[in-house]
Q: What sequence folds into this?
């Protein structure tokens, strides 16, 4: 008599399937996001499309503006068509948009391609996080989401190698043609990725949800009360500004603005700024690899440090260390020392932003925690738009050296804002699992 797979094995199998497919999707998301910054030095050197530094900064902001639109609309669209379909659509959109960039004959067409790619990129990440949250093994949600987040930085590392191995012999267009390849992954995602259980239950597709839950021994989520949920969301948003909460909310938003300005400003301009400091293209792309390796390590280290010393305190310290690292990059040091500084800057910079969300989670009431973190992330996306633009304006004015200083000042401002918010906020008890899940919503 053959024994059936244990419930634990079934849950693990579904988690591996869902997380594995989402991890690959987020890997391609990171590749498409970082590829522009990786090929930008070559484009400027070759004067591709007649590109100037200020135009290059504008183009970097187009993608992040698209991400803002995608992130703000992803939840509404996913509620209508399903998370699985939205993920497939996002992968197809940013892949096809890369093809438009590869064929572009003008800066305007290239900018349209980057904007469309940004919409796909911005919609994919929060949807993928929601998917793996549904299927993560019990008690392992934080670890599962943390593992998913490493894919974004792995995509950044891949973008550097694509630029190094493809751009020099074949030109910048070949790099964007390479970014069309994830389009082949979309049918695989459509066929193999299970739909979100919470979406199926919310849409009344109980039989389909039940069959999937029975197959993998997963508990069905409770059906939501739609009217009460909608009212709750609005009440949660309004509560962020009631009484003295408005000042706390604005401080969190300002800290998030500076954090994402740093993340996307540095991601876009790091290779170009380092070339401006006298490093060759190979070294400049190695900096991208080290920066993203630091991001992967930082994602794994930040949670432990936050659990031990407190997320608000670590967030402020991390931003201070980020400012020091970014400023040091403006000093021409021996190559090995510069590599070390870039790696450590990647550790602190990428983790500092996630710890803003951890701080908001700790300071928020359970009933409005998701709204508080979501809007803090959304407002921070404006910084993601501003960062690439700022770098381009400084380079256009022949003030590239000030780029590192400006990013360092942004880091210090986030340190101040999150520090004041932490001191003003009253401590509230938060479950560690809820907190850690929101830490990963980067």
A:
């Amino acid at each position: 008599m053959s024994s059936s797979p244990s419930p634990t094995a079934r849950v693990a199998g579904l988690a591996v399937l869902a997380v594995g497919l989402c991890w690959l999707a987020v890997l391609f998301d990171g590749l498409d996001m970082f590829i522009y910054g990786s090929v930008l030095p070559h484009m400027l050197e070759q004067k591709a499309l007649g590109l100037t530094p200020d135009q290059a900064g504008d183009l970097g902001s187009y993608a992040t503006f698209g991400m803002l639109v995608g992130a703000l609309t992803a939840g509404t669209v996913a509620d209508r068509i399903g998370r699985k379909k939205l993920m497939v659509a996002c992968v197809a959109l940013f892949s096809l948009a890369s093809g438009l960039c590869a064929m572009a004959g003008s800066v305007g067409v290239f900018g349209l391609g980057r904007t469309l790619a940004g919409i796909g990129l911005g919609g994919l990440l929060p949807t993928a996080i929601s998917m793996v949250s549904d299927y993560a093994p019990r008690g392992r949600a934080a670890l599962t989401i943390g593992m998913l987040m490493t894919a974004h930085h792995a995509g950044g590392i891949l973008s550097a190698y694509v630029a190094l191995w493809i751009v020099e012999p074949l030109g910048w267009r070949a790099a964007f043609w390479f970014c069309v390849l994830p389009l082949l992954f979309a049918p695989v995602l459509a066929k193999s990725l299970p739909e979100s259980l919470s979406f199926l239950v919310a849409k009344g597709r109980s039989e389909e949800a039940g069959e999937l839950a029975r197959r993998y021994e997963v508990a069905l989520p409770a059906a939501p009360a739609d009217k009460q949920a909608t009212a709750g969301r609005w009440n949660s948003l309004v509560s962020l500004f009631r009484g003295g909460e408005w000042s706390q909310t604005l401080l969190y938003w300002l800290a998030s603005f500076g954090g994402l300005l740093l993340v996307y400003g540095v991601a876009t301009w790091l290779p170009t700024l380092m070339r401006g400091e006298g490093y060759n293209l190979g070294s400049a792309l190695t900096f991208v690899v080290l920066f993203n390796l630091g991001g992967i390590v930082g994602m794994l280290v930040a949670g432990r440090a936050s659990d031990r010393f407190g997320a608000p305190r670590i967030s402020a310290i991390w931003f201070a260390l980020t400012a020091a690292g970014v400023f040091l990059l403006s000093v021409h040091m021996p190559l090995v020392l510069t590599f070390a500084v870039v790696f450590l800057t990647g550790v602190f910079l990428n983790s500092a932003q996630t710890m803003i969300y951890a701080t908001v989670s700790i300071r928020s009431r359970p009933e409005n925690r998701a709204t508080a973190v979501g809007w803090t992330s959304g407002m921070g996306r404006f910084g993601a738009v501003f960062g690439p633009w700022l770098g381009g304006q400084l380079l256009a004015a022949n003030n590239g050296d000030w780029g590192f200083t400006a990013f360092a000042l942004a880091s210090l401002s986030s340190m101040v804002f999150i520090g004041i918010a932490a001191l003003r906020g009253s401590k509230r008890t938060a479950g560690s699992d809820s907190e850690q899940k929101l830490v990963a919503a980067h």
In short: The chain has 17 helices and no strands.
